[in-house]
Design goal:
This protein folds into two domains: about 90 residues, Alpha-Beta Plaits, CATH 3.30.70.580; about 160 residues, Pseudouridine synthase I, catalytic domain, C-terminal subdomain (Alpha-Beta Plaits), CATH 3.30.70. About 20% of the residues lie in helices and about 30% in strands. The protein is built from five helices and ten strands; from the N terminus they run E-H-E-E-H-E-E-E-H-E-E-E-H-H-E. Strands 1, 2, 3, 4, 5, 6, 7, 8, 9 and 10 form a ten-stranded mixed β-sheet that branches. The radius of gyration is 20 Å and the shape is globular.
Length: about 270
């Protein structure tokens, strides 16, 4: 039978999702757990091949198995033998032709930044610490430039073929001051990445959803939007960079540890 599962993992200690010959990967960990539980040599396919150091809260996988027991018992058995940094959140039967990658309608990623003068050590594996105050209003305005169908060659490379056109459905920033909620400021209102009354640090979450992504597209976009937040690139500069279809026009690629695949949607 065909199985579909939702998987979460801390990608810090893995060289990405896809199996590699001489490096630990999430796919290898899942397949090792399945082999131990089912006594079958199974192959797992996934909705997205996350890079080294990238996390997931909603990765979708599929595999075929001759498992004869309740499907939920398979989930429990897998979680009993998986490493502590990988977990199966949900598991169910799927149509025989279900494919987690090709059947996906969209994928949503989230990049998390801690914007404060001093780092929080306990969050270093899942967020990027940025000391410089950031203009969230300008960053949000620049993110809006990305919505719609565009050629995103400036921000990434295709994983196969040469088509670089993608359709972005959502591109938005949210902010949260530690200890209190904080509404996202409007462009030009002068509010930056910390509460002006207390100086507290601020969590910044960038959510982007698209029908598909280019290789390193999200991290390249985040690095470019950080330039906007720091005042070294204008919103018009982002528009020009997007139109140029030139990788040299993108900002520095943001590091992987702030990125998480949060959801894969299907019809």
């Amino acid at each position: 039978m065909r199985i579909r599962a939702v998987v979460a993992y801390d990608g810090t200690d893995y060289s990405g999702f896809q199996r590699q010959a001489n490096a630990p990967t999430v796919q290898a960990a899942l397949e090792a757990a399945l082999a131990q539980v089912t006594q079958e040599p199974l192959t797992v396919t996934a909705a997205g091949r996350t890079d080294a150091g990238v996390h997931a809260a909603g990765q979708v996988i599929a595999f075929d198995t001759a498992w004869r027991h309740e499907v939920d018992s398979l989930r429990r058995a897998m979680n009993a033998v998986l490493p502590a940094d990988v977990a199966v959140l949900a598991l169910e039967r799927a149509a025989a032709d279900f494919h987690p990658r090709y059947d996906a309608r969209s994928r949503r990623y989230r990049y998390t930044i801690y914007n404060a003068p001093v780092r929080l050590p306990m969050t270093r594996r899942q967020s990027l610490h940025v000391v410089t105050p950031l203009d969230l209003g300008a960053m949000q305005q620049a993110a809006g430039v990305l919505i719609g169908e565009h050629d995103f060659a400036t921000f990434g490379q295709p994983t196969q073929g040469d088509v670089t056109v993608r359709r972005v459905l959502v591109a938005e920033w949210r902010s949260e001051v530690i200890g209190a909620g904080s509404a996202l400021p409007r462009a030009g209102d002068g509010t930056h990445g910390r509460d002006p009354r207390t100086g507290d640090g601020t969590w910044l979450h960038f959510d982007i959803e698209a029908n598909a992504f280019l290789y390193r597209m999200v991290r390249s976009i985040v690095g470019t939007l950080l330039q906007v937040g720091r005042g070294t690139l204008s919103v018009e500069g982002v528009e020009a960079a997007l139109a140029a279809r030139d990788r040299d026009r993108a900002g520095p690629t943001a590091p992987p540890h702030g990125l998480c695949l949060v959801q894969v949607s299907y019809d």
